[in-house]
Amino acid sequence: MDMAAELHPRVPPAPGFGEPCPITASPDTLTFLAGRRSATPQQLTAPGPTPEELEDLLRLAARVPDHGKLFPWRFVILEGAPKARFVEQLRLMAERQPNPGKAQAVLAKIAPAPLTVAVISRATSELKPVWEQELSSAAVCMTLLIAAQAMGYGANWITDWYAYDPEARALLGVAPEEKVSGFLHIGTSPEAPLERVRPEMETIVSRWEG
Predict the structure, then answer these.
(1) Long-range contacts (CB closer than 8 Å, 24 or more residues apart) made by 199-206
(2) Residues of the chain with pLDDT > 70: what percent?
(3) Residue 13: inside a domain, yes or no?
(4) Containing domain of residue 137, as a range?
């Protein structure tokens, strides 16, 4: 048995344009979602996704609801030496934050992972509500998180101060009209994350009766 394939399953090719996409039950998906848990970003180590796996992950992440087929988001890949330089520049910027100590501390979340994908929201049309376009970008983040974990990697979706700081945004190449929807940190988790508190359904669910 190919152990690599067992740890990181292959992704089927995308259907061709106009081909049917059958809606079929997937008990394995339900089982996965029932126990889905973000990995601790400070513990993520190599190996991360291969170039081919990253290509698959981005393709899957782009298969999200998108009112108007606007594709109002884009990806920025951070890995290897360029990512190390990016983090080092953030360390310098952290000293200029209102709380330098805290700003430095949260960089422990972005530094370790071998791969970080920044999802950038870019509202591209006035024909559809900006809020809907931003929601689509958030859906990209969640789908990428799920896809990475379904492939066998640990992953975490984070923003932190450098998603909002003007200097950090400029360093990443984010235009003034764009927003950082999140940094997706992906790598190998050395241990299974522990379950956290979840909401009691009766406190957040209501039924409209008219």
Answers:
(1) none
(2) 97
(3) no
(4) 53-189
Q: Do 133 and 70 contact (CB within 8 A), yes or no?
A: yes
pLDDT (0 to 100) of residue 8: 79
Q: Which two tokens stand for residue 89?
A: 């520049």
Q: Domain total for the chain?
A: 1
Smallest Cα–Cα separation from 112: which of 90, 76, 83, 89?
83
State how far the Cα of 72 lies from the Cα of 83, in Å rounded to an integer: 24
List residues bridging with 155 in a β-sheet: 186
pLDDT higher than threshold 50 for residue 108: yes
Report d(CA 112, CA 187) in Å as an integer: 9
CATH of the domain at 141: 3.40.109.10
Widest CA span in the chain: 58
- Pair type for strands 73-79 and 115-121: antiparallel
> What are the pLDDT digits (tens) for 110-124?
999 999 999 999 988
- Quick one: average pLDDT of 165-189? 97
In 3D, which of 177, 194, 210, 148 has the Cα closest to residue 37? Answer: 194
In a domain, 59, yes or no: yes
Cis-peptide into 176, omega within 30 deg? no
